[in-house]
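Quick question: what would this complex look like in 3D?
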Amino acid sequence: MAGQKKMNFKEMMNKPERLAPGHRMCAGCGGTIAVRAVLRALHEGDYAVVGNATGCLEVSSFMYPYTAYEDSYIHNTFENAGATLSGVETAYNILKRKGKVKENYKFITFGGDGGTYDIGLQSLSGAMERNHDMVYVCYDNGAYMNTGIQRSSATPMFADTTTTPVGSQSVGKMQNRKDLAAILAAHDIPYVAQSTFLGNFSDLHKKSEKAIYTEGACFLNVMAPCPRGWVYNTEDIMEICRLGVETCYWPLFEVVNGQWILNYEPKKKLPIEEFLRKQGRFKHLFKPGNEHLIEQFQAEVDRRWEDLLFKCSR
Amino acid sequence: MGIRERLSGNEAVAYAIKQVNPDVMPAFPITPSTEIPQIVASYIANGEMDTEFIPVESEHSAMSATIGASAAGARALTATSSCGMALMWELLYVAASNRLPLALTLVNRALSGPININCDHSDSMGARDSGWIQVYAENNQEVYDNFIQAYRISEHKDVHLPIMICQDGFITSHALANIELLEDDKVKQFVGEYTPENFLLNSKEPMSLGPYAVSNYYMETKKAQTEAMKNAKKVILDVGKEFGEMSGRTYGFFEEYRLEDADYAVVIIGSAAGTTKDAIDQLRSQGKKVGLLKLRVFRPFPDKEIADALRNCKAIGIMDRSESFSGQAGPLTAEVTAALYRYKVDSNIVSYIYGLGGRDYRAEDALEVFSELEDVTVNGKEIEQFRYIGLRSR
């Protein structure tokens, strides 16, 4: 990372914030934490254009006439954050070549799982395949939270959402999650990583910096819990993220030029109940008679974990 | 003196794009506009222009990336037709409300279904309320000239609106015709450099674009757009005049063909005007006082000017190349009729639907229209006021 002086944790946390306070996201929201953490990895002196798919983040951080962004920012619609930033990045390339823009710019766009896994998947895929020099960050909170907690293809199995409500004939969402990071890795882009909020944020920071300063299209999938949708006490967010990693529900890995790298392997993999128990959206799983559902969930986590270990061992 | 050539409408627009040399062009192929990005891509591949071409994966992304590029501070455009524009629909409104002066070269084609690749105006007419300037052409020369004028209109500080340069699918886009091209340096000088006031890549003044605006601000953005659209009227006339001084071809809101003393007039958009002119010449040689108003600019809509031009006509046939399924008129008829009523022009009006999905419009059809208009007026014949012409007899 040429040009960036080494910073310790305190210095890093004292860098000027690029997401200003005063936005209207909920207390305990993972989305905002993800944005601050990713933007913190921008080197001082580098400019950025921040993109955003429609979602909670957009409608809460840029309510006319107030913007929370210190950098330039563009929101277009729900399903086109990838394409929009590809236009911005291309404009930068030619304006820089023509001498009309002198400064160094980086291009980072944020989308929730709705705008990324689902409605925006085509636009994302196109932008990644064309290898625009940009980072797409999915803050994955596992449902359409902005419209009121409807299921998405990122919603885990058995989660209680407003379109997969738990009822006398329903145990929540019946399908498993889409493995978006693997889909992005299959685009053969320079860098794909999965992270979340842990300890001193070193994992997310390093991955953000790597994504921002790797030339070409990069993708970060960040598990970003939502207190309303997941139904937890706001102060529990860090513990939930830790349990997501320790149970191997949300493994930390990178795919660098096609090479899968596991970043963390728990010494003792915790049972999935530990992760599920903290969240109201899974509370029905703990009712007597539903033990088999937890077993099914565990089997799926195990299967995916084994698959990841295999990918990373090649 | 211009350069004499023979080009199709698509070739003519692509040539104009090369001469204007915009910064960024994202595009996705769709018949009949596909040639435009193809030709531009080959100009770039051969070093004849330095536009950045983005081969996007859909028209939705084409307009999304065009918006991104324009917001960033680049002169940007895309090309499409029909369903391609339908897929952009949501973004058309975003481009306009963000006040981005980008261009779309539209090759008009029928919307599905049934799927049909031929000309009608259902694509652009459907987008008439999206906040874009719409300029139509009768022939290859006009679409070339219109594109050269596009950015001068859209980028004007009193306007700042996206602009749609339309031509008729296949009829002009694929037919070769004689054309007079302008010299590169003349075009460059006429169009000028793009120097946006606010843009994303302005390090001195970062910008946020695309806000959430609730009911306390939304309505004012619409009012601002409508004011800009009204301002565009003067700018379109000024640019059309200045273009005329350079090229010898002056443009306004519409062309009046033998209209001044006409008792019977046809109002029409696009290539069918040429066919209608032929019919008018035939009828004039028989002493019939007939004429044509060929509308070039549909947005902004020159209502008073149209009403004044048609004030002395006894009967007017208004020709729509798209349906609006109101059961009483196509979109052009509805707007022209409203203008005539507002400015107190009292004529017999008949609404015609013609040429949908590429159905031929022949001089005989125009002759029939004029004959009906005369019959209605002179003989008091009662006919259905909303008519289809050129339908199959079986």
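Answer marked as accepted. The mean pLDDT of chain B is 97.
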